[in-house]
């Protein structure tokens, strides 16, 4: 499984690499407030290095001072590096090697994760920040089957989303039924669940990464828990985002 996940992570990274390598101006603003294209790539590079530290020296990772501005500050610092694209290429290649050999749970900013879950999270984050870059450049990306990973982690983090928003984790399961880019059906949760979320997989991926506003998406929610979850859904660690 980890081999297939890492292959998809490579593919997602190469797609974004091609996009930014052809961009003339990395100082263009992206939809993330205060972040340029350089910030987006810098953040991915920094997170790769953080993941490597978590794998190789979990004690040092946990000893890091996590100030409230760490994400913005490190992204800004990385964006100023003259050789950022090469550094990101190196960091993602190194992380791939570490994930291929990693065993057991990996400490992280949210709950500890297996190597497979970490690879899935890196696909999700690469795709999400790639969306920001594409939006900045006015590029419309063709969705691929790789967005299933984004949707999967979005479904798996339902309880985390409730906790982050100060809400009790629901004790009922939600059925999620999505239509993939090729018309395929992707399903999570029991068939007879009263609470259901459905729609295009791309819209759901935008939802859980908070890359589009709820009103733009063809996502339907049925049931109290489903209706409560959809507005707060998030696939990423950290405090709730401001959305689009």
UniProtKB/TrEMBL annotation:
Q: Name one Pfam family in it.
A: Wyosine_form
Query: By its UniProt entry, which InterPro entries does this protein fall under?
Result: CHP03084, DinB/YfiT-like, Maleyloyr_isom, MDMPI_metal-binding, tRNA_wybutosine-synth
What sequence ranges are listed for the domain tRNA wybutosine-synthesis? 174-215
The chain positions of domain Mycothiol-dependent maleylpyruvate isomerase metal-binding read: 9-134
Q: What is this protein called?
A: TIGR03084 family metal-binding protein
